[in-house]
Design brief:
By secondary structure, the protein is α/β, with parallel strands linked by helices. The chain has 8 helices and 5 strands. It has one domain: Rossmann fold (3-Layer(aba) Sandwich). About 50% of the residues lie in helices and about 15% in strands. It has a 5-stranded parallel β-sheet, with helices on both faces. Helix 3 runs parallel beside helix 4.
């Protein structure tokens, strides 16, 4: 590669930091899948609208750099076990299952993050940050709670971590 080619490739990565990232997006709502694809500009997004469709796409020989799974409607927590077993970093996305129990289950089953659908417009920024942290071996959960801790406080109440303070101290640290 020439110096000019290296510079051009670097500029494209800066413009589209998700260029070439292979994403499996699973949601039963077509408009959500369309939004994910639009927001993840430059990523190669494979869509699945059901659990069975997602399993089939995981079963063919495609490789994915990331999975984004809805929790409700597509059995996202069971899909999470499959993506984690395949070594695919996975972000859980939800509206209707937004509660501390599914958050905790997502953590214990190996998800990188648990995002409310209200944050879809910023999904690209979250994905870039989570993948970078994951690659460095850093806590994606500390990053999530740093960015969205106030959202979880409003959604679940100010004492939402009091049911299992030892568990939450490990994942919420240093934001508790």
């Amino acid at each position: 590669m020439t110096e000019a080619t290296d510079t051009q490739a670097g500029a494209r990565r800066e413009e589209k930091p998700l260029a070439g990232v292979r994403v499996l997006a699973v949601d039963d709502e077509p408009d959500i899948l369309e939004t994910i694809e639009d927001v993840l500009d430059g990523a190669v997004v494979t869509r699945a609208q059901s659990y069975d469709d997602a399993v089939a796409k995981l079963g063919d020989d495609r490789e994915y750099d990331l999975a984004i799974l809805d929790i409700m409607g597509v059995d996202g927590l069971n899909l999470l076990a499959q993506t984690v077993n395949r070594g695919i970093p996975t972000i859980m996305l939800t509206a209707h299952a937004m509660n501390k129990e599914t958050l905790k289950t997502s953590i214990t089953k190996g998800a990188l993050a648990y995002l409310p659908k209200e944050e879809l417009a910023r999904l690209d920024k979250f994905v870039v940050e989570f993948l970078a942290a994951h690659k460095k071996g850093e806590s994606t959960w500390a990053l999530l709670f740093d960015r969205l801790g106030a959202f979880f406080e409003r959604s679940f109440g100010p004492q939402w971590r009091s049911d299992d303070p030892e568990f939450w101290k490990y994942y919420y640290y240093p934001f508790s």
